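[Q] Does anyone have a clean structure-token version of this?
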Amino acid sequence: MAGGAAPGGSTASDTYARARHWLLMPSWAVLGVFVLAPVCVMVIYSFLTKEFRGGVIWDPTLAAYDQFFFDRGLFGDSEPKLQWTYITIFWRSIWQAGLATILSLLIGFPTAYYIATRPAKTRALWVFLITIPYWVNLLIRTVSMKFLLRDEGPLNDFLLNIGLIAEPLQIINTNLAVQLGLFYSYLPFMVLPIYAAVERYNFSMSEAAADLYATKWTTLRRIVLPAVRPGVIAGCILVFVPSLGAFLAPDLLGGAKNFMIGSLIEEQFKGNAGNWPFGAAASMILLSMVLILLMIFAHQQRRAEASA
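[A] Here you go.
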């Protein structure tokens, strides 16, 4: 058929494009129903008025955002001041998520590199061992971590028995306990992307660098890290984003004094005394910050690729 035209006057490329759109429709429908629609609901709720017994009143207002950033006194008639309570919770969430990401990278990169350099027949076993904890629900794993770290838990018993400490360490209900919970929960999210990147790395480049008398540190910094950078960036995003909105580790391991933004949002939707518009506004602030960070990552990646 001349010009590759299909019956009805359309070309083969047009037919392929239509077929591709039809095949993608189920995916778009799922994303629309389970991702886009809930976000739209949260956006709308964040601009509504709180109902006294929970829920919302369909009266548009910016009160939820005003409550997050400003303190106007108990009756709302005072001069507005910065609401440091919620800003402090937000800042605590950022540095806890950032520290969890750094710790996961420091442990995850050597782990992924070690696994990727094992014989091919044993790599699957190592990856299997890394993913075993994820066969158990996150709630159960976090409760197990609380049992391990408590004053009368196995960790303190072991340290007391070997004489390293004279009295139990107070770990539960501290920032350290939250950090350990986040690190334990999301470490495999760092290991697996880096492992996939290192596995594709051409190790003959490292051998060539050694032949040119480059030190191991120089080879790592100048050759290996730039080559596996996409895996490192993916791992950092996969750890930082869920850590930022986590609420199980802060709730179970941190207590009331170590609230994070995920715990704050969760509290607004519990029972009949919650504040749905405020919870929705806090969610949108969190989502906006994550999107900004991802845009910065993407911009930096494009600049790095352009300069390469």
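[Q] Thanks! Anything notable?
[A] The beta strands are 49-50, 56-57, 70-71, 81-82.
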